[in-house]
Design brief:
303 residues; alpha/beta; Rossmann fold; 8 helices; 10 strands; 38% helix
């Protein structure tokens, strides 16, 4: 096995596994690294199978065969593809014998961004998002992008759809997400759409509470105030970014997923790292991660 090339701190880290989803993550990460003028570090992590398969060349097979050689070939091909996309990009690679999610979480301690596909070779095809994407998104120490939607199919949004979407509820995590949203919109030279969605509480009978005109207006005013407070400092920092403010009476996840069909990137905040694994992203983050039509960026309040 060849020695890994050094990974510089502050790199864009992307996990590849030979799947189409992993290839889409590689393309997205290379494009992002070139846009940010950061190095790209390509990681392939897997566990050796507990079978009689040869790690090196089989006695009956060709020289240079075996699982290790296949893994190194995957990394070399991935690095070559990234350099072909962005010739000026500094690319390093690393082959790790370990489970992918813990390795990517550990690398996130010094990375600028971690990028993964929404589903890899190790998952069931019926799953909307693989376990690696969910685990890394929940536990990483830097922002994580899960590449899914049309981007995963190699389809680029038309120019009039170029926007970054972020949701806010006024919480610290949402405020941090707005900051990342502004940064990404500035890098792309596109609009930032900021959404505050509020869902009326259910009635005792299980229906939806219907609000009157004054109540609707009051909720709209409250939503506008929350957006104004959340955006104030960021708009001063990024005056070149056009901002579209949206207040909706809708479930937050439904509103964000709807906007994702016309976005390059959807940014959501996370609840943090404490508690049960299934609650780390919150219900809105989980729903968006599984159903968005574009890549999803997840950021923790303390990133």
């Amino acid at each position: 096995m060849t020695a890994p090339t050094p990974r510089p701190d502050g790199a864009i880290v992307v996990g590849v596994d030979g799947s189409d989803e992993g290839a889409a993550a590689l393309r997205w990460a290379a494009d992002e690294a070139a846009r940010r003028r950061l190095p790209l570090h390509v990681v392939h992590a897997f566990l050796w199978p507990l079978t009689g398969m040869y790690l090196g060349p089989s006695p009956e097979g060709p020289e240079g065969g075996g699982l290790a050689a296949q893994a190194e070939t995957l990394l070399a091909d991935s690095a070559a593809q990234a350099r072909a996309m962005c010739p000026e990009l500094a690319v390093s690679t690393e082959l790790v014998v370990a489970a992918p999610a813990p390795i990517l979480v550990e690398q996130s301690r010094t990375a600028a961004l971690v990028v993964v596909g929404h589903r890899g070779l190790g998952g069931f095809t019926g799953l909307l998002v693989g376990s690696v994407g969910v685990q890394v998104g929940a536990h990483a120490h830097c922002p994580v992008v899960v590449v899914r939607g049309d981007e995963a199919d190699g389809v680029r949004e038309p120019a009039h759809h170029r926007r970054v979407v972020v949701g806010t509820d006024g919480s610290p995590g949402a405020t941090t997400a707005i900051g990342l949203g502004f940064e990404e919109a500035a890098l792309r030279g596109c609009e930032l759409t900021v959404i505050h969605a509020w869902e009326p509480p259910p009635t005792p009978g299980g229906g939806v509470l219907r609000l009157q005109g004054r109540e609707n207006a009051k909720i709209g005013e409250t939503g506008a105030r929350i957006l104004g407070e959340a955006l104030a400092s960021w708009e001063d920092k990024y005056p070149e970014v056009p901002v579209r403010r949206v207040v909706l009476h809708s479930a937050p996840a439904k509103a964000l997923i709807g906007e994702s069909a016309r976005a390059e990137l959807l940014v959501v905040g996370s609840r943090g790292r404490g508690g049960f694994t299934g609650l780390l992203l919150g219900s809105t983050g989980q729903a968006v991660l599984h159903h968005a039509r574009c890549p999803v960026a997840i950021i923790h309040a303390d990133d």
